Amino acid sequence: MSEGINLSQPSLTLSLPKETWLVKTRGLLKYIGPAFIVSVAYIDPGNFAMNISGGSIFNYSLIWVILWSNLMAIFLQCMSAKLGIATGHNLPEMCAKVFSKKANWFFWLEAEFAAMATDLAEFLGGTLGLYLLFHIPMIYAGLINGVLTFLIVYMEKYGQKVVERIIGTLVAVIIAAYTIEMFLAKPDWGQAGLHTLIPSLPNGEAVLIAVGMLGATVMPHVIYLHSQLVQARNRKDYNDKQKLKHLRMERIDIAIAMNIAFIVNAAMVIVSAAVFFRNGMVVDTIEQAHQSLQPLLGSLSCGAFGIALLASGLSSSAVGTMAGQTIMKGFVGLSIPINVRRLITMTPAMIIIASGVNPMNALVISQVILSFALPFAIIPMLWITSHKDLMGNLVNKPLTKVIGCVITCLIVGLNAVLLYLTFTGNV
Question: H helices within 273-298, ranges in order?
């Protein structure tokens, strides 16, 4: 009898860790999603343009910019998520509570303008993807892109998790496409690893492209949006312990999603360096990159690039439209039907496409607008998260405040450089 007890004891002991691991995994999976929606902004068509240009001109030298931009993005997204979890409101709603009505009208106007500028770049990417893959004229490709984006965002009607799954699938498509590109490009991994860790700026033009990479990475609309997305898993009756758990889970979500975005961005630079720089080609348009891949790497690479661009354009267009909805309602409480809000956010991008404006010029203009808008998202967020009466136990610690100030000054300063170079005709 005693032998039977001894034999059964090990199996009981072994089953407990397995059960605990499964419970913890299921618990984490409940929180995975919001950061994946946000991460799309970090692998949008603007990133395609800047990363391809950087790799084709400076080889692997600027991969470190992607790493440091990603670290800044992780910090800012954690701040946005924390604000949403601690207060039970998104950033625009909190601005409406703590700042004057005039200030909020100003915040709303510049944020809505930024959301439309963001949508402009995203719509151009999706439209170019359709044009390059299926040779559909730009105006018709733009209309198809608009309809597909509307359908993705409309699925929010069935719950945020449905949209998270759609966006996650599109992100998986981008990852798969660039995995194929990396396999075909055969990069120098030693040089890629070295330049990821060691910063270098070969000349003044490298500074310009590095600033552009940062400007294409850190975007204001997802700072507003993330604080809204966490509400789907937030509850008004959560106590401090439950809020801390939610924040820990969301930080894991952010770490996974943002690092995937980093890998995709780094892959863009690495493939561009391995293919275009190695063959002495300077690529400064997305269309040129697509056309050049076929003779250099074959039709599989060319097709993978087009599919990645289309998936990026569709997913980031949907995210930009969702951010526009959050902004429109939050700052000034405009009661506009949700479908009308979506159309308002999309319309300027459709007008630009229909007018036949050069896509790369439009992309540069959109980056300039975002340079203006970025401080108006970061500074109020850091101000709110530093006040205990608003944040409770999740208020920023002194070290967090210092890091926030340093990152804010660096981002604002570099975006100011991008703005200056643009208006002086150097970009």
Answer: 286-297
